[in-house]
Amino acid sequence: MSYTLEELAKKIGATVVYANSQIDEHCIISSLATLKSAKEGQVAFLANSKYSQQLESTKASVVILSEDCLENSPCHSLVMENPYMGYALTAQLLDTTPKTSQNVHPSAVVHASVKLGENVTIGANSVIEAGVVLANNVAIGAGCFLGENVSIGENTSLWSNISIYHRVVIGSDCLIQANTVIGADGFGYANEKGKWLKIPQLGTVVIGNKVEIGASTSIDRGALDDTIIKDGVILDNQVQIAHNVIIGENTAIAGCSVIAGSTTIGKNCTIAGMVAINGHLSIADGCVFTGCAMVIKSITEAGIYSSGIPVLSNKEWRKASVHIRNLNTMSKRIRALEKK
Q1: How many other C-beta atoms can be found within 10 angstroms of the C-beta atom of residue 123?
Q2: Which residues of 293-316 are buried (b: 16+ CB within 10 A; e: fewer)?
Q3: CA distance 181 to 161
Q4: Which domain holds residue 58?
Q5: CATH number, domain at 117?
Q6: Which three-class secondary structure state does DSSP give residue 336?
């Protein structure tokens, strides 16, 4: 796809400001690039002031930026209040990602009872078991497995080698990246005199609409009640969601974070990478956890929470570790001095 400046501006809600105030009807935009690498025919964007110095030397045909950066632009500009949103919308327009599948491949194994909507595509070597319902425009990539009675809503796409266990429900307009597993057993066992007895996981996973799930993420089915991922949630790669977790609308969770069982996360939360949230907790709406935070108690108020330890040189860390080991002794000495 390619667009004139006026077409692109209309689609992303920007205002065109031509360089030297001269209308350029021959400027055609066909791809995106960074300010530093952009060439003629490409659009770049400036959403972070740290890259402002690259604006004056950019070779892009047009730059998406805010009005306060306009005077430094050497080329045509698309002015909008949120340039990063403009970048996102432009990326959607110029996206070259292929479809996950093109048709129902002859090697796909589809049970006779499966209900297929219109324009459903299924990639090579995928297995679709009995009772599955795939709504209109669902796309299943190569090598996927859909267990019995799975239901997937309209316009949802699965990339390759994804396993969706029995009875999982996935809403419409979702995107699931490769190698993700949804509906595997939660970590449920009873212990009797040192021996583990497996507890069958009898719930399922229910995923809302417009949910995006990254590669190699795992979402466990519920033990009795269901694991629930509500509308608009985005999960990064290699996220672990344990059984009976509930995640509220529009919450974002970055890579390698772990949510233990039976915890409820509110809506509009932001959870950075490598955050660990303990089980059986409740997290309020609008909470932000910075990277490597460890959450061991419920959070009742919105806010920004941190507990990660910044990196130190090895020498500094070794010294700090000695002080940590001596904290208990130091505390006793201080109490004794205070008492004296």
Answers
A1: 24
A2: bebeeebeeeeebeeeeeeeeeee
A3: 9
A4: 3-93
A5: 2.160.10.10
A6: helix
Asked whether residue 294 falls in the same domain as residue 328, the answer is no
Is residue 161 within 8 Å of residue 181, measured between CB atoms? no
**Average pLDDT for residues 252-274, to the nearest whole number?**
98
List the one residue out of 229, 226, 236 whose CA is nearest residue 211: 229
pLDDT at 25: 82
Q: Looking at residue 61, which CATH number applies to its domain? A: 3.40.1390.10
Domain assignment present for 277: yes
Residue 76 a catalytic site member: no
Residue ranges of alpha helices (H) inside 23-123 are: 83-93
- The SS3 call for residue 162 is coil
Residue with tokens 């019995």: 148
Catalytic residue chosen out of the listed positions 26, 166, 243, 280: 243
CA 20 to chain centre: 41
Spatial distance between the Cα atoms of 29 and 41, rounded to a whole number of angstroms: 5
29 — phi, psi (to 5°)?
-105, 125
- Residue 21 domain flag: yes
pLDDT tens figures, 266-300: 999 999 999 999 999 999 999 999 999 999 999 99
- Please report the pLDDT score of residue 20 as a whole number: 82
Looking at residue 17, what is its pLDDT? 95
300 with 322, same domain: the answer is: no
Distances (CA, A) of 323 to 227, 316, 317: 43, 11, 10
Same domain, 136 and 26: no
